[in-house]
Amino acid sequence: MVYATVRDDGLWKSEDAGQSWSFAMDRPWLEETERDLLTLASVDLETGMGGIWIYAGTEAGLTRVPDCFCRWQDVQPGNAMDALVAGDAPPSEAPLPAGEAVRGLASAPSAPDTLYSALPSGIWTSRDGGVVWLHLMDGSASAVAVHPSDPMQVVAVLDGSLQISRDGGATWAALAVE
Length: 178
Hints:
Helices cover 4% and strands 46% of the residues. The chain is mainly beta. Strand 15 and strand 16 (173-174) form a beta hairpin. The longest helix has 7 residues, at 80-86. InterPro entries: WD40/YVTN_repeat-like_dom_sf (IPR015943).
């Protein structure tokens, strides 16, 4: 399964590795306006309808949708599907900064609860599926990627420089590009 976003359109999916595509869902409606998706990450969490959540970064922040594509929602603590039905779940206790664009988003397939995000304020991580976020590094971040089998190995573009962390973001070093 491959997911993609098309500017001014919404979320598309391919069930045959990109040979054909079908429309999955409109863009999220946040803060009284429809938002374009800047980045996507698929996360395998038990609380999704089929176990998969699609996390999306927009210019207004982070949102997600279960793979049933029933409705975009804010990331909430506890059982997110119960929160969606109830409609009155409490907000995240330590969210990403309000109103900042989420320019990059990466999940760790070997640790599904672990997410990394790239924002104008730096690199952030969540170890609980996006409920609580920790600021790892200052600077203007534009991209982030995580090793598929080692969730502690992260690469990010920060202030135009390629940086690597091998300890989950506790320390960073510049990568020499040859």
